[in-house]
Amino acid sequence: MSSSERVAYGSGLPVDPLWPRAGNWPVPSGHSDFALIGVPTWRTSISATNAGQTPDAVRAMIPRYSQFAHSGGRPLDFADHGNVPDPDADEAATIAMIGAVDTELLVALGGDNAATVPTALGRWGDRLATAGLVTVDAHYDLRDGVSNGSPVRRLIEAGLDGRRVVQVGISDFANSAEYAARARDLGITVVLRDELLGRPMADVMAEALEVAGSAGGPIHVDLDVDVCDRSVAPACPASVPGGIAAHELRAAARVAGKHRRVESIDLVEVDATADTPDARTVRLVALCVLEAAAGLALRS
Predict the structure, then answer these.
(1) What sign results for the dihedral spanned by CA atoms 193, 197, 201, 204?
(2) Do the domain assignments include residue 27?
(3) Is 23 part of any domain?
(4) How many domains does the chain have?
(5) Residue 21 belongs to a domain
(6) Exposure pattern of 119-151 as b/e (b: 16+ CB <10 Å)?
(7) Would the keyword Hydrolase turn up in this protein's UniProt record (predicted)?
(8) First-last CA distance in the chain
(9) Would the pTM count as exceeding 0.90?
(10) Which stretches within 80-169 are classed as H helix?
């Protein structure tokens, strides 16, 4: 979907003038507080995926919910920049397109985890030397080559300081000793899945964002939905039993949205065509979009 080819989502849903629905945000006409963009990467995925179809599936799901949050906050101006055309084919053009978005907070809908690289680099621009990264992900994403398993390594090779990278949710049986050593050697702060047990996600994210923002630069937050338990994220090829709960991912999105240095968030690794009949994974992504907006509304 390009910005000139708009679909009105939710047209078959009940209408209540006292219960306005979220979504169907306008084409940008200047600066926005909150912007959505689709980055439908999929060609370099290690696992077979149709993740390129997910951005529009999420857009179609958002109107099932309202924008009202009990936390309150300031009103927001929303914009939807459509989808980047074939982001796998021309990463430089994708970076430029994302860099041109005039917004306080950009949420990128993947696509697989390859979407993280152009989204982060596009938002950071010439501030890479002070930038930070937080990933909420079961995997290190430090593989060699170019794939959905390499975005963290690629960003560090582009100039990101590994000491301002925090990886939350790294899981057993989903990684290797070699990549664990690579993370350690790069100075990455790692919070294992087991370390999250009994700790509020909001507290963990607050600490992670302090590390990532320690140089005073922009922060990108990568929310890889396969960090979640497979029961709530069955459309993620790599999700496993024992991942984090849906409410924990939603909490991470809200805390990220609220932090003043977070300029971009991505939601990745969902194949909407592999979801359950109730679309529970796509529903979770849609709610994370709204959680990020609710967090942004609370920024001072």
Answers:
(1) negative
(2) no
(3) no
(4) 1
(5) no
(6) bbbbbbeeebebbbbbbbbbbbbbbeebbbbbb
(7) yes
(8) 34
(9) yes
(10) 91-99, 116-124, 151-158
